[in-house]
Design goal:
325 residues, alpha/beta, 8-stranded mixed sheet, 33% helix
C-alpha cells in the first residue's frame, strides 16, 4: 500500500473520546473516516456529518460488513471491548481498541489470539506511548541521562459526577478509577521498569463496589513506583521519574505532556517543549498506518505482549482491592 493511498477508518462508539479521535483523523492526509456506527442512527448521522464521513450505520454488524473500511477504532465502554474487537478481527478488519483492552486478563488473551488467527493488525489505544514527549523521555532514560531509575511517581485524578459521568460509576460498563484512569500511571511504570516483583494496592470503594480511588505501590528489584487514581478528587497530574543522577518531570497532564523538565544533580538542565499534533491521538493513528502498510499485526512500540503484561498487572490489583465485574 502506497503512502499516497488513504487508509479508511470506521468508528464504533461515538462519545467524547471518539469525537477527539475523529478530529485528529482529519489532520492526517493519509486517513479517511469512511463509516461510523451507533445504535442511534440520528447520533451516527450527526457524527458523520460533523467529521466529513460518508456513511453512518445503526448497527455494528453493518460496519463490520462494509468492505471499504480497513481499520475500526473501538471507543465503546470497557465491557464491550473484547467482543467487538474479536468480531471486527474475524470480519477481516484491523482494530485499534480503546484502553483498557478488556476487563479481564483472559479476554485480553482472546483478543490478541484473534489478531494472530486472522492475521490482522490489533493494538490497544495507549496514545501516551506515541506522543513526542514519551518517546524522547524513554530515549533519555535508556541512555541513562538520569542514571538508574529508582522512583516513579504518577497519578491521574479528577472529580467525577455520578449525574454527569454515569459511565464512570456504572459497574456493568466497567466503571471505577482503576480501569478508566489507573491504567495510565501503571502504564508509565511498566514502560520504564517492566513488570514489578510485587504489587501492593488499596482502594476506597463505592456503594456499588467499584473503586472510587486506588493507590498502588509497585516494587522492583531496586526501584519503586508510587501511583494513584481517583474519580472523586483532583491532582496536579504531573509525573516524576527519578534516577541516581537526576530526574525528569513531565508537564501536566503528564499522559499527554507537551514537554518536560530535566534536572541533573538538582540543577535544572533543560526545559523541553514537544507539542502534540491535534489532541494527541494523531500519533497513535500514524503508528497504526505504519504497521498496516508494513504488514505488521502488532506495533513494536506497544505490542500484544505489552498489553498482556499491563492487563496482568491490572488483574492483580483488581484481585487485591476486591473489584469484580
Amino acid at each position: 500500500m502506497k503512502n499516497s493511498q488513504k487508509i479508511k477508518w470506521g468508528i464504533i462508539g461515538l462519545g467524547n473520546i471518539a469525537n477527539q479521535f475523529a478530529s485528529d483523523l482529519l489532520l492526517l492526509e493519509d486517513a479517511e473516516l469512511t463509516a461510523v456506527a451507533s445504535r442511534d442512527l440520528f447520533k451516527a448521522n450527526d457524527f458523520a456529518q460533523k467529521y466529513n464521513c460518508s456513511k453512518a450505520y445503526d448497527s455494528n454488524e453493518s460496519l463490520f460488513a462494509d468492505e471499504e473500511v480497513e481499520i475500526i477504532y473501538i471507543a465503546t465502554p470497557h465491557d464491550s471491548h473484547a467482543a467487538l474487537s474479536i468480531k471486527a478481527l474475524e470480519s477481516g478488519k484491523h482494530v485499534l481498541c480503546e484502553k483498557p483492552l478488556s476487563l479481564s486478563y483472559s479476554d485480553a488473551i482472546r483478543m490478541t489470539e484473534a489478531s494472530k488467527k486472522n492475521n490482522k493488525f490489533f493494538m490497544e489505544a495507549f496514545w501516551t506511548r506515541f506522543i513526542p514527549t514519551t518517546k524522547e523521555v524513554l530515549d533519555k532514560v535508556a541512555k541513562e541521562e538520569i542514571g538508574e531509575v529508582k522512583y516513579i511517581n504518577a497519578d491521574f485524578a479528577f472529580r467525577g459526577s455520578e449525574t454527569e459521568n454515569l459511565r464512570l460509576f456504572d459497574k456493568k460498563l466497567g466503571g471505577g478509577a482503576l480501569f478508566d484512569i489507573g491504567v495510565y500511571p501503571l502504564f508509565l511504570s511498566y514502560i520504564l521498569l517492566g513488570k514489578p516483583k510485587e504489587i501492593i494496592a488499596k482502594a476506597i470503594m463505592h456503594k456499588n463496589n467499584i473503586d472510587l480511588q486506588t493507590s498502588m505501590i509497585l516494587q522492583y528489584e531496586s526501584a519503586q513506583s508510587i501511583l494513584h487514581a481517583s474519580i472523586v478528587s483532583d491532582s496536579d497530574m504531573k509525573a516524576t521519574i527519578a534516577g541516581t543522577k537526576g530526574r525528569i518531570e513531565l508537564n501536566s497532564p503528564w499522559f499527554v505532556a507537551d514537554g518536560y523538565s530535566l534536572f541533573i544533580n538538582d540543577e535544572k538542565e533543560a526545559v523541553v517543549s514537544l507539542p502534540v499534533l491535534g489532541k494527541g491521538y494523531s500519533h497513535e493513528i500514524m503508528e497504526c498506518h505504519n504497521c498496516i502498510r508494513n504488514g505488521q499485526i502488532e506495533s513494536e512500540f506497544w505490542s500484544h505482549q505489552n498489553s498482556l503484561d499491563l492487563s496482568g498487572i491490572v488483574e492483580e490489583i483488581k484481585k487485591q482491592i476486591g473489584l469484580k465485574f
